Every structure is written in C-alpha cells, then in structure tokens.
Amino acid sequence: FSYASSHSKANRKKNILPEDIFSYNNDLFYEYIKQAYGNDIAKLFSFQAIRNAELLLDTSCEDILLVLQQESDDIDALKKMCCFEVAGNKYQVKLGVKLTINNLIQSLNVTPLNQSQTQDTVTPLESTLSSSLTTNTSSIQSTSSPMQRKLDELGHIADIEERIDRWWVIHDEAERASLEQGIDYFLAITKSLINTYTCALSCKCHTRFKLPFMAPGFFKISSLYRHLKEKQCIQLRPGKENNLVNSEISSSNQSKTLHSVATSSGIESQHVKKAAHTTTSKRIRPQSDRHGVIKKSSKSYIKQVTLERLISFAKSKTNSYVKNYELKRDQLEHDLPDKLTEVWKQGPMSSGISDIPILIPWMKNTFENFKKQKNKFTYDNLIQQFALLLFILGGRNCYEFLRLNLPTALCHVSNVELLMRNNEQKNT
Questions:
Q1: What is the pLDDT, as a whole number, of residue 67?
Q2: How many angstroms separate the CA atoms of 34 and 53, rounded?
Q3: What does the domain layout of the chain look like in residue ranges?
Q4: Which backbone phi and psi does 95 adopt, to 5 degrees?
C-alpha cells in the first residue's frame, strides 16, 4: 500500500511539470516558476543563480535556504517574502516555501529529460555532408527555441486549477483549503481554427480577466493573484468584509461621540450654543447648509480673536483709559467700535496718537467687513491709500503677513497692484 501511494504521488508530481522543463533557461525558467509556484520562489532561485532545472537537481532545499541566514539589504527583501519575523528580530522560513522547493526537486527527479535532449545525438558517419548540415541546423533551431506544451482544453483547465490551488495554499491565511472551479471562479477556454487557445477567467465577485498565453505553453494568471492578494476580493475573503463593516461601525460611533462632545461644550457660551443647535436639528440639511454653519462659526471665532488683538494694540498706545473702563464680552461683541471710538476721543491725545488718523476708520472698516461675505468686502479710499503705502514701504511679504493675520482689514494684493498701476498711469 505504501509503495502504491508513493508511486501515485510520483506520477502526480510528474504530471505537474511540463515535458520540456529541462529546456527552460534564465528568464523562461524564472517565469514558469513564478507562474506555477509563486514570485517568492522565483526571486529566491534568481538570487541564487539557479537558472534551470538541471542546476536545481544538483542542490537541496537546505542549501538554497542557507542564504537567508546572512545579513544584507537584498537578503532582507528575500526574508520578508519567504520568512516571517519572530521574537528577537529573528526570521523563520515559511513552511510552504520549504514544501514547495522539496516538491519541485522531487518532481524533477521523477521527470525524464525531454525528447529534444534525448535525441541530441551525433549524426552517423555514413550520412552525406548535405544531410548532416541540414540536421545540424534543424537541431540548433530546435534547441534554441524551447518546445511548447501541447495541452487540450481539459489539460489547460487542469493546469490552471493546479496552479491556483498551489498558490492559494501558500499565500492564503484563511481556513479554506482550496478554491473550487465553478464556485469561486469560472474558466472558459475556446479553441480557434488555427489550433490556438484563449482563456477567460471570472472571479466570484464578477471581475473578468483575459489570460495571456505564454510561449512555454501555459496561461499567465498573475492578474488573478494580484486581484486576490492586493485588491483583497471580499467574495473570496469574507473576513475582509466583516472588517470593513466593523470599521464603518466604529467610525460612526466616533462621529457620534465627537458630535455629543461638541453639543455639550456648546452650553458654555451662547454663540456656540446657537451653532450647536443649528447642527443638531432633526431636519437633514444639504451639504451647502452644513458648510454655511462651519463658515459662520469660523468667522465668529476669527472675529473674536481679531478683536482681542486690536484691543491689545489699543492698550499699548493708551494706558489711561484702562483704569476707568472695564471691557465686557457682551459689550465687546455688540458696540465695540463705538466704545473704542469714544475711548480714543476722551483719552489724552499725545503727539504719537495724533499722527495716526487712519486707526479709527481702519478699525471701523474692519468691523463692517465682518458682517459681510468675503467676496463683498469694501474699502474706502483712505483705507486703499493706506494699504498701498503699506505695500510700498513694507514689501509684498510684509503686506501678505499682515493681511493674513488681520482678516478683513486689508484688501487683496491684486487690488493693491491694480491701484498702483492706476496711480502710475495718472502720474504719466
């Protein structure tokens, strides 16, 4: 019984490999290994310069994996593909990699040399010179181009199923042992009048692939591998779908938590409370309404910060009114321009203050623009001349710095440049 089982395994491994496997060299050999056994095995063979099946027969799995014990940047890239990291910054070779290399070597041991190698004999002496030249040229052509595998429709289907199952066992981490043709994916192979085959593969998620036919005689199915590994097909990996649902639930819970925090913090001030009441209304507002609420709240915040900066600037100029005047937040929001004007008029006018007649109109113009939309800001002639003077004396960078830190106080740079060109035309 053991001999029969081992013999059946040997025959099965023999049928996996193409008949002309020993004629594959370099890129053709690596391409077949990549398609049949995976990119990690192909990269490992290429790094070890194992260019054909004959070199693979002269080595062992332990000799091939011995290079992974060394340290370098290239070897680290191989370790990430063929190994998994354990404690202590050490790497352990994946079991699937060892089994794949051992099975490939055993399959090569039971696979005879192809006909092109067995028939590569010396021409008999009694043949004529012309016939020897003909046979030599034909043998050179036959050895230079490898023989293609000649499979029928059923043979190609079995070959594709075998390679997909082998790849799935190595790369899949789920409990499923294999993928079933007709359930998880679907194959359709057609034969043309010139005895060529075309293959269409459809995934369970209705994604369709047209598999290209390679020179060695097999269909390239790397597009399906990328679809399953990189795109994370939800139909064949149900765990990914659950993760997506859980992530959506957690994100919704986080948004609800942030929403409740925003509404609770709105009780602290009357203005924020109105904004929170607007955002928490039961009626679903369109996208434009929500942006409008955000713009209003941000504008009120900018207004409050800008007013505090202007007050600190006024305090640095006149200190006499601070003792007799108490600023309140409610008064600050409603009648601040009038209060500041009154303070400037009642305070002792020093020589330094009298030299700044632009300050009061500039502050009034700033407060008036706070009540308007950004595209409707207005500036009187006096403010425009002040902005032009500031642009000329301070330069573009200084002007941009003040304009960005004092919203609505200064007009845009393009308007200042236009005003400058108009003045130049008047002077000329």
A1: 84
A2: 14
A3: 1-119+136-147, 148-236, 239-279, 324-427
A4: -65, -35
